[in-house]
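Aim 2 progress update. The chain analyzed this quarter is reproduced below.
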Amino acid sequence: MKTILILSSNPKGTSVLDLDREIRDIREGLRRSPNRDQFHIEVRGAVRPEDLRRSLLEVKPQIVHFCGHGDGEDGLVLEDNDGKAQLVESDELARLFKIFADQVECILLNACYSEVQANALIQYINHVIGMNREIPDAAAIAFSIGFYDGIGAGESIETAYKLGCSAIETDLPNLSSASRKLIPIQLPENAPPLVLPDYLIPVLKQKEQLNPIVLSASPVSTAKTQLEPLIGHSDWIRSLAFSPDGKTILSSSNDRTVRVWDVETGRLLHLLTGHRDRIKCVGISPDGQRMLSCSADGQVRVWDRELLTHKKTGDCQYIVKATSRTITLVNSLPVSPNPQRPVFATGAEHGKVSIWNLETGQWQRTISAHSSPVLSLAFSGDGKWLASGSQNKTIKLWDLDNPGEQPRYAIGDAHLSQIFSLAISNQHQILVSGGADRTIKLWNLATGEKRSPKHILEGHAGQVWCVAVSPDGSKIASASGDFTVKLWNIQTGELLQTFTGHLGEVRTVTFSANGKVVASGGDDLEIKLWEIQV
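Predicted structure tokens:
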């Protein structure tokens, strides 16, 4: 078993690279390879120098793949604690990898001018691949695809390298202008277009006296084999919700339908229609009797489960016109988990949050919560508190017993970019947020202060679309644009498990009522169910 460690870095202020696509194509290529069971992939995103060291210790890889920017003699471009560029010199990299020379077989530096680092690393590592000049983003991705096609087929490093070079020549009719050199986001208008030279850009370095490689065991999986996926949607899956008894799951999609599935058999129980636009969110009442969905058409539809028992389609119980503008909730339609507070909430593009009676659909109040679109909402377990996250990077906590519009607290610049999802661990009084900056952050629910000892959870190489907290409050599940779902210990911040298998961005994730099953869905149109044992 060989472990591949993929490290990505795209700091603020540098040209944006399609790193998510590169990671996706590597995963998909190896998944389809005849030797897929012989490889394990670990991904670390927004990599800082300390993350590089820690991941080498933790993962113990045989192949290390870096995708990001390079700046030649000045070094490889990683990130600092603020997400800005931090250069790591060649000699520093060489001294670090010298420690792992008996473990690492190959390093691929998919960044501009990285031949400088390759020359330093080849003193200790058997094979190092670098780029001898500025390389277009599309060419870097093509090389990765060809290289790992070879690795997955059981070919040697040398042959895989040749296949990568061939992919650059044959697979790129049009080259992207983005490159993997450390450059500002805004290029001069008169900058000359990048063209692929006739000769091959990647350079393979091979150590004359090869080191013996000690293959380490891949990380032990703490999850059973994934259950059979639920297939039926014809467009992206946007949201999922388990029934309280864990026997059924509700899903929504860009295909304008809501579907109710039998978890055990995978059978479609109900197909709910009526929305005129993509359905962003679903929710279920605490007693499992009412099922809710909200759409970009501005409507919330509520179905009574009892009325649907004898038919697969049916009219909803009532419709709420939440706003005349687009609803921008992304990951869940929050329903109060407290049966004594039968309400649900909606968040709108104009920054307002509205509270509605769950039993009747009657409007109760509206809060002018944010100055930008509300992207995420989460109720506390008692239904008294409502957390909101916005496009302008702000989180606020609202006391629903207080009729005023002043939040209990506001966290400005909670993330570096949009806040896509919120969840609350009532047992540990922790507010969890996930954002476009690829991080998960933990906050003290009562005060809004940074949670210690672990405040930031890093590891995703794509934006975090959704976070969910297990019913016992001990674990976090996160869904990301890097095609993975990750499971975390909420108290220590330890990464417990990475679930791979999706062939597209994962938009939503949720726990079953007993916390033993995680469901996820996204761009590959499949709902995947994972049994967990941690």
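The chain has two domains: 2-206, 230-531. Residues 183-196, 214-225 have pLDDT under 50 and may be disordered. These observations will guide the mutagenesis experiments scheduled for the next reporting period.
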